[in-house]
Structures are given as C-alpha cells and as structure tokens.
Design a protein that fits this description.
The chain has 348 residues and is α+β, with helices and mostly antiparallel strands. Helices cover 24% and strands 36% of the residues. The structure holds adenosine-5'-diphosphate and magnesium ion.
Amino acid sequence: MILSVDIKKRYKGFSLDVKFTTNGEYLGLLGASGSGKSMTLKCIAGIETPDEGKIMLNDKVLFDSDKKINLKPQERNIGYMFQSYALFPNMTVEENIGAGLKGTKMERQQKINEMLKIFHMDGLEKKYPGQLSGGQQQRTALARCIAYEPDVLLLDEPFSALDSHLKEQLLTDVLELLKFYKGKVIMVTHSRDEAYRFCENLVIIDKGMSVLWGDTKDIFKHPRLLSAARLMGCKNISKCEMLSPTSISLLDFGITIETENEAAKKYGYAGISSNGFQITDNKAEKNTIECKVIEIIEEEFDYTIIAENKVCSNSKLYFKVIKEKWDNREENNNLYLKVKEDCLFMLE
Ligand code: ADP
Ligand code: MG
C-alpha cells in the first residue's frame, strides 16, 4: 500500500507545500503547532482541497489538479480521527461505532460486536459518551474509525485531549489495538516522544513545508536540518565554521572539534546530542570543553546536567549521565566534557 502526497495550498498568510511518499506502516507527521499538520490530513481525507498537486493511494487517484480529479471524502476510504474526537453525544457507544457502516443489520451488529470485543468495551455498548471516561471515549472513537476498514487511518494528535498519565497508558493500548488494523496509519503529533514510539517513518513539517522525510531513528540520531534538530528537542546547537572537512569550529561553544570522518560538505550549524559527552579528567584531551556545573535535574535513571561553558560563558551545555556514573562526583566547578565524535551532527 503506497500513499503519495504532493500538494500545495495557499491561504492569506500561510501556505502549505507538502510532499512525501509512504509505504511503511506507521508514518508520523511531526511539526510545531500551526505548521500545517492538520491541514495536510484534511487534504488527504478530502475535507480540504489543495490548489494544486496530486494524491495517490496505490493506483487510485484521490486528487489530481491537472486531471481535475477530486474524490469525495466518502469515496476515498480513509478514516480520520480528529484532534478532538467528536463522538455523537446522543448516540450510544454501539450506535457511534455503527454510524457509517454498510451492510445488513446483522452484518453491522456483527462488526460492532467484534469492535467492542477488540477494544475491551464489552458491557459499555448502551452507554452514552458522557458516561464514559476519557480513555473509553477515545477507544470508541478509534473503534468507529477502524470499523469500516479504511485503507488509511489518519490520527490527528490522538492523545492531545488527555492528561499525561492517561496518555502513557493509552499510547501502549492503542499500539496494541492497532495490531488488529491492517491498513496504513498516519499520525500527526507535535510530541517527539510520541513520534519516536509510534512511527517507523517521519515527515518533518516546518512552516507549511515538508522539509525532511525518513526513518524515525535515523532522523532522531541525525536530524540534518537546523529546524528538525530544534523540533527533536536538541539543546546543544552551535553555529559552526568548517576549517577543513575534519576540523569544525563550534563558534558558540568556543571549541574546534577534530573528527576522524570527513564532513560531506560545508554546514552552517552543528549539534551535539545530550548523551554525546564523556566526562574526562584531562582538560587537554582532544575535543574537550571545560565547564562548570550550574544545575542538576534528577530523573528516574539519570541526571540532566546543565553546565556553563567556561570558554564561552554565555553558552550552556546539556548532557545526560546515568546516576551511578555521577553520584560519586564531588568536584562541580571543573567538569571536562569530551565530545563524542559520533554524537556530533552537522546541520543545514
Ligand atoms: P497544525 O495542525 O500543524 O497545528 P494547522 O494545519 O491546523 O496546523 O494550521 C496551519 C496554519 O494554517 C495555521 O497557521 C492556521 O492559522 C492556518 N489556517 C488553517 N486554516 C486556515 C484557513 N481556513 N484560512 C487561513 N489560514 C488557515
Ligand atoms: Mg492540528
């Protein structure tokens, strides 16, 4: 199942220009709030019409501005779960799940029962949305989307309406439930953690533009673009000057990093991931930054250390260290951080 999207749409003050192809199972659209994620999904679902471009699902043309093809939403067989998953408040759970199902009464009831079972909603079929918990409402909404077996399921920030402890549980539940669903899933999120856990592939959307597409783990490891690195939450970013393909001066950090591998071209920025440092005793060691600890943030298994860079005192470095490696330290005024070469990534 291949979905390819190549669309443009202009509004006053905002334009969308999105292009990607996916044949992976879970694709994430990751972008800041207001970057055009929902609008992209609406165009795929057929609720919004792009000004130009093409949307294909396998051999089926869903939209083609040149050929003046624009299938109606109900002809596309695409399930769309909105950001605020609106259930019909005056319908019971089973009526909600059955809304839009085709077939005889018996066939519809069979499908509803199957969904109730898969989604652990047995016994709740006669309840109204107002009588359900947030998690149950969400499961109902998802069941309704999956019941008619869409080829593609679009989830628009499916967890944003829930509080964080529920979110964690549901993330696990939904992953489990979606195993029953054979189609393709595209999920929109502005959370890097959700994207990492859910999505095999990612499209990064920045100000209406799809700027990066690729394997999720690769993108997290090496975001390639400044905008993507920021979106991934990378805190250690510096302007850089490349003195040679193996010698990179990080201007904001006051250090020149010597690398083994040659950089492929000239880059304007570089980032270091928060687990990209090694503590050393010798400040003269290659690629080492002299720092002072200014804050220690404790998490369950590790600390995030915020260190002031002694060479460039207006720059801070963020790094993570597992607790047992840090707990016996006494000296906080002199901290020597050696940049691990494979954790330095160049950014355009
Ligand atoms: P996201 O889902 O990434 O948060 P949206 O896709 O909802 O963002 O919106 C992207 C941008 O398009 C926003 O800046 C929004 O203000 C703008 N926008 C959305 N709908 C319209 C519209 N009908 N007319 C003009 N601008 C719009
Ligand atoms: Mg949105």
